[in-house]
Amino acid sequence: LNGRRSQPRQIRSRCPHCCDSGVRATGATVYLATADVSCVDQVEVALDAVNALGCPAVRGVFHLAGVPQPLLPLTQLDSPTLQSVLKPKVLGSWLLHRQFADTPLDFFILFSSWASLLGAVGQRIGSYSMANTFLDAIAEHRRALGLPALSINWGDWAEIGLRHRVVQAGYRLLPDDWTLHPQQGLDALSRLMPQQGQRAVLPVPWPQFLQLFPQAAQTILAAIAPQLGDAQSVHSLPATPQPFLQKLESLPSKAQLQQLITQVQFHAAKVMGIQPPSALDIQRGLFEMGMDSLMALELKSGLESSLGRSIPAVAAFEHPTVVALSTYLAQEVLGWGAVPSAVPAQVEESGDPLSSIAQLSDDEVDRLFAEKISR
């Protein structure tokens, strides 16, 4: 059992079934090692160390290393963050493949993620999606060489693992009832271990999942997608013009976007349980504030009912703030074309005199100054 940091006490407390006397009573022995799996020298030293303790020859490999990443697109990732996420999965899996390429193994199992199935939406989890896609590719590469390999695209595990840490930081994509409980995951793993290639384990309502992530139907899920019917029929649009849209179109053009922002803010706050709606920061990331994919689907449905227009399921992922989503709806869904930059009312009404002066033209400054002098 190898970890990047040496924490045997914490390992025992978090994984008592691996290290307690009950396991030893079955004849199993747990050997603890410390190595960064992305560093070949450390891996070799760790293997030498456990071999010196009498560890039998390695007959199987599990790769579970990974580092969580905030919900940021690739264009917003700096190089250190990108490398920290890629190294344990990309370089780590490759080094393990090379290390055991000539060793007879019963299994070589890679813990990948559903993130690699998401297509364009996966860009919101940038390097993490890329890293797990590499694990899937490594499995295919090993199979082409006649070597054992299984890459498992796990859904989110409840209570433990990366999801637990990411949710604590305020991020989530899948709702809580779309997650795997640890025992469910272990049961699935025991059934999958004899298999080879790429498998996905996702306890989700498939019509909603594929509506949110339509490109996933082009991956290994293609075999089941036709069995689920038309995912787009989950929510049908109203047949009659909607009062809000009629009210919106009756407003002066300068007021339309601000009213649309208020409406998007209202619906987002409603699905996220934020009251009053004005407490929701319209320029902060929705997923950063706790939205998940099911909430995004509810937001889409609510906005479609208000506007009487079809909205892509990925809109909230690709435009993840209230202002960005409102601007997208105005330009692409409602067809308003170019819209003025959305400046939040609370900023305009901040009362900062320097901010107000900075927005005045030279002629306006001269006029106000002349009026002040004349008094």
Structure description:
By secondary structure, this protein is an alpha/beta fold. It is 47% helix and 7% strand. The chain contains 17 helices and six strands. The chain has helices spanning 8-14, 16-19, 21-25, 40-52, 79-99, 126-144, 161-168, 182-192, 206-212, 243-250, 253-272, 293-307, 315-318, 322-333, 345-348, 353-358, 362-374, and strands at 2-3, 33-34, 60-63, 107-113, 150-154, 197-201. A four-stranded parallel β-sheet has the order 3-4-5-6, with helices on both faces. Strand 3 (60-63), helix 5 (79-99) and strand 4 (107-113) form a beta-alpha-beta unit. The longest helix is centred in the first third of the chain and has 21 residues, at 79-99. The model is unreliable at 10-14, 231-239 and 344-360 (pLDDT under 50).
Concise summary:
With 375 residues, this protein is an alpha/beta fold.
Which helices and strands, and how do they pair?
Layout: E1 2-3, H1 8-14, H2 16-19, H3 21-25, E2 33-34, H4 40-52, E3 60-63, H5 79-99, E4 107-113, H6 126-144, E5 150-154, H7 161-168, H8 182-192, E6 197-201, H9 206-212, H10 243-250, H11 253-272, H12 293-307, H13 315-318, H14 322-333, H15 345-348, H16 353-358, H17 362-374
Parallel strand pairs: 1-2, 3-4, 4-5, 5-6
Helix pairs in contact: 5-6, 9-12, 11-12, 11-14
